[in-house]
Structures are given as structure tokens and as C-alpha cells.
Design brief:
With 239 residues, the chain is mainly alpha-helical. The chain has 11 helices and 2 strands. A hairpin with a 3-residue loop joins strand 1 and strand 2.
Length: 239
């Protein structure tokens, strides 16, 4: 199954082999890796090298260690994808406007895909989220549902990369503007407007009318962009 490694830093070879096996489909999400002892024998390396490789793979979200059970191929790479991207973005002088531009590109495509692929069951699930959004009275709950609606749209579109990118974009925005989503929803006028905008987006998707959904998303994102600028200016003035 594995090939004995030579040269280089030994643990890097171990990492490469596991990554390649994931890429080729030999290892899949949820698969359990061989025990440390078995990996030592199959790869011909020390236990220390195996542990170092496993720790590195945990950091990038590829491996999940479960106490008393062993090491498994993971499936949630959101945080591990976000952290290196956010560091590089900051080091290269990234601006919040760039994040919003990327969000616009991705979310517009996300609603188009969702309108094309949505099923009757998914239509009900999406509308249920909107019903929860409408009746929510707690700010924390509204923030969670707002994010859940956008995540659900990406999920309906069926493109996992879009879902991951949107999650990363949301995290990046929170890095630039503290509690961004909560601050937007805190104002009553914003709440009513954003609720109506979300409903129009969802109505377009449920009706399988991609043009309607796209236009509604563009209007929504323009509102978010203008509000974000105001929030950023306010936070800058408070420093």
C-alpha cells in the first residue's frame, strides 16, 4: 500500500504519500489510517517521523485524530484553508474591497447554480430557513440563520469548492471588520431590508429563475458593500 521513503525530510515523504492517496481516491473521507506501528513497518521510517507527519496533516485538516480510535482522513478543511490564505492576504496588503469583489463573483455564480439544480425538497428547506429568519428575535440567531441561508444556497448549487470559498470569505471579512454580520443585522432598518433581499433571492432560486436570483443577489451584495464601508469607517474613527 505504501512505499518506503528515502532522502528529503522523512516526514515530508510520508505526507506526500498520504496526500497522493487522497488525490487518487485510494483514501477517502472517513477512512482510517493504519496504526503507527503498521505505518512504521510499511514505510520503513521511525515512529517520530510518522507522528510529525500526522501532526502536519492535522494542521491542514487532512487528518483527524480521535482519542482511542486512531487517525482518520478528515473532511472539514474550512479553518485550515482559511488560516494560510488569510495570512498571505494580509502580508500582501489585502483590502476588504477585494474580499467583497471575490464574494460578488462567487455568490452570483452560486445562486445561478442553485436555481438550475434545486430540488423540491431543497426548496422546502430553503424556505424553512427564511421562515426562521423572519421570526428570529435574537441577534445571535439572526446572524447564524443569515449565514445558513448563504451556505444552503451554495450547498444546493452542488459545488463544494464554492461552499468552502464562501466560508473562507466570511471569515476574512470578520477579520477586517469585527462582528461584521452582527453589526449589519443590529439595525432594525437593515434587518427589514436584508430580510426582503434574502427572500427575493430565495424566491428566484425556488422558481428556478436564475436571472431573477442573480439580480437579487447583486442588489443584496451592493447593500452589503455600502454598509461594510460605513462600518469600516466607523471602526477606523474609533481607533
Amino acid at each position: 500500500m505504501f512505499v518506503q521513503v528515502k532522502n528529503k525530510k522523512v516526514y515530508q515523504h510520508v505526507i506526500e504519500q498520504i496526500q497522493n492517496m487522497v488525490m487518487t481516491g485510494t483514501l477517502k473521507k472517513g477512512d482510517k489510517l493504519p496504526s503507527e506501528r503498521d505505518l512504521v513497518e510499511q514505510l520503513g521510517v521511525s515512529r517520530a517521523s510518522i507522528r510529525e507527519a500526522i501532526r502536519a496533516l492535522e494542521m491542514i485538516g487532512l487528518v483527524e485524530s480521535r482519542q482511542g480510535e486512531g487517525n482518520f482522513i478528515g473532511g472539514d478543511i474550512n479553518s485550515s484553508f482559511f488560516e494560510p490564505l488569510s495570512v498571505m492576504f494580509m502580508l500582501n496588503g489585502g483590502r476588504s474591497e477585494e474580499i467583497l469583489e471575490l464574494r460578488r463573483v462567487i455568490e452570483v455564480e452560486a445562486v445561478a447554480l442553485a436555481a438550475e439544480k434545486i430540488t423540491e425538497e431543497q426548496s422546502l428547506e430553503l424556505q424553512q430557513l427564511m421562515d426562521q429568519f423572519r421570526t428570529a428575535t435574537d441577534e445571535t440567531e439572526r446572524v447564524q440563520i443569515d449565514k445558513a441561508v448563504h451556505d444552503k444556497i451554495a450547498e444546493i448549487g452542488g459545488n463544494y469548492l464554492i461552499l468552502i470559498l464562501l466560508s473562507t470569505i466570511s471569515s476574512l471579512l470578520e477579520t477586517f471588520i469585527r462582528d461584521a454580520r452582527g453589526m449589519i443585522l443590529r439595525e432594525e432598518d437593515n434587518r427589514d431590508l436584508l430580510l426582503a433581499q434574502h427572500q427575493e433571492i430565495c424566491d428566484g432560486i425556488i422558481a428556478k429563475d436564475s436571472n431573477r436570483a442573480i439580480e437579487a443577489m447583486k442588489v443584496h451584495l451592493e447593500t452589503i458593500t455600502m454598509t461594510m464601508r460605513k462600518l469600516q469607517n466607523t471602526q477606523a474613527a474609533e481607533r
